[in-house]
Amino acid sequence: MTMQTQISTTADTTPIHSADLLTGDNGLARIVLNDQIYTLRITRAGKLILTK
Q1: What is the largest CA-CA distance in the chain?
Q2: By the 8 A CB rule, do 23 and 5 touch?
Q3: Which of 23, 38, 48, 50 could form a disulfide with 29 if both were Cys (CB 3.0 to 4.6 A apart)?
Q4: Per-residue pLDDT of the chain (52 residues; tens, 9 = 90+)
């Protein structure tokens, strides 16, 4: 299976990213915004949770 980091099928210029690629094998990613670190997590039910 080939995954892409950015997929765009509309004229909208908003980037679309794969949560699976962002979080990797462990389902976690750290995201920094204004010196604050957030955690993006994929749950066992396939939902996304973003926590500070």
Answers
A1: 35
A2: no
A3: 23
A4: 455 555 556 578 899 999 999 999 999 999 999 999 999 999 999 999 999 9
